[in-house]
Design brief:
By secondary structure, this protein is of the alpha+beta class. The protein folds into two domains: about 5-85, Hypothetical PUA domain-like, domain 1 (Ribosomal Protein L25, Chain P, Beta Barrel); about 100-135, no CATH class. Helix content is about 15%, strand content about 35%. The chain is built from three helices and seven strands. The chain has helices at about 15-20, 30-35, 125-135, and strands spanning about 20-25, 55-60, 65-70, 75-85, 100, 110, 120-125. The protein has a four-stranded mixed sheet with strand order 1-2-3-4. The protein has a three-stranded antiparallel sheet with strand order 5-6-7, covered by helices on one side. The radius of gyration is 21 Å and the shape is elongated.
Length: about 140
């Protein structure tokens, strides 16, 4: 059965003008259920609009999801999950006694977890710091 003439689409809008796309990398341990909580978005909710899409990936690549903003206010955003895939969490070959930390003016550093001693500092990017951490384990 055909739709009546007055219900057929007559105007298409370029999606770039009506919806935006975002990418968010979340910390290890954040779940898709956390993303669905409207208050999760309280710091950025005012920037979101209905029909915006948000691609989310956990920093350990344990999961990936695509979400649609259904409604957004000043402090909350309600999302619909469009797609979800579980990945394989990266297991670090680095020594478990060291971690990467951002230290302001000292940029990224390798810090011993046990006592907080800085092993290496002034590393310009997180990626480079993680590479150095992995190299120490090899």
């Amino acid at each position: 059965m055909k739709a009546p003439l007055n219900t057929r689409p007559t105007v298409l809008q370029d999606a770039i003008h009506t919806a935006r796309g975002y990418m968010l990398k979340v910390q290890r341990g954040v779940t898709a259920e956390d993303i669905m909580d409207p208050t999760f978005w309280n710091h950025v909710a005012s920037q979101l609009r209905e029909f915006d899409r948000i691609e989310v990936v956990s920093e350990d690549k344990a999961w990936w999801g695509l979400f649609l903003v259904v409604s957004a206010g000043a402090r909350e955003a309600r999302l619909m999950q469009l797609s979800f895939a579980e990945g394989k969490a990266q297991t670090s070959k680095a020594k478990p006694d060291l971690e990467v930390k951002f230290r302001g003016l000292r940029k990224f550093s390798l810090v011993r977890i046990a006592d907080g001693e800085v092993i290496e500092e002034d590393i310009p990017t997180k990626e480079e710091a993680e590479q150095r951490l992995a190299a120490r384990a090899a």
